[in-house]
Amino acid sequence: MTRTMVELRTRPPAGAVPPGAAPPGPKGRRPVPSRPRLSARLAYLIQRVVMPNAVNRRAGALIERSPAARRLFTAAERASKEQLFGCRMCGQCALPVTGYSCPMGCPKELRNGPCGGVGPGGACEVYPDKRCVWVVGFERASSRDAAADLRRLQRPVDHRRWGESSWLNYWAGRDDDLWTDDDGLASPPSLGAHE
């Protein structure tokens, strides 16, 4: 019988990140909760325009044919979404189902709701002077009768997609399975129920 030893690490191995180097994440930034600058009403209106449809799919396919057009489009998306939503360009945008509050702005990068450290007033556990992105998302989604969207479970982020255009991925169907329809907890089975 062969044994395999596995060492679990809580931080990168020594020498992997030089002293004084930028922290992990896009452009070396750590996630910090950001309050969206675009109103929920306007964000949900824009959602109708950028949803996958024949026109957007065709435009996306044309953009993807040209590396220069793809870079330009991705740069424009990055600039606009960074300013409006605090986007970190994960390439798998969850904004449509999180009240347009970017979950990647959570210091823990939680994609499925707040951690247990949210303060009584909705403050972030890591940055107490900032509101939890999930509290903000719930408030924004509720204001547009879209709070049920927050019941969808987000699948883990594919880190190979960092920096890609999430709109192009969305239109091409590369993130169709990014989230579930529902968390399945509306009528959970009772404890001790047998199949």
Structure report:
The protein has 195 residues and is mostly helical. The protein has one domain (30-172). It contains 5 helices and no strands. Helix 2 packs across helix 5 (166-172). It is globular and about 50 Å long. The chain starts with 39 loop residues before the first helix and ends in a 23-residue tail after the last helix. 24% of the residues are buried. The model is unreliable at 6-18 and 20-25 (pLDDT under 50).
- Report the mean per-residue pLDDT as an integer: 82
Number of domains: 1
Order of helices and strands: HHHHH
- Give me the secondary-structure category: mainly alpha
**Beta strands, count:** 0
Shape: globular
Helix share bin: 25-40%
Largest sheet: none
Number of helices: 5
Strand content: under 5%
The CA-CA distance between the termini, in Å, is 37 Å
Instruction: Give Rg in angstroms.
Output: 19 Å
Show unreliable segments. 6-18, 20-25
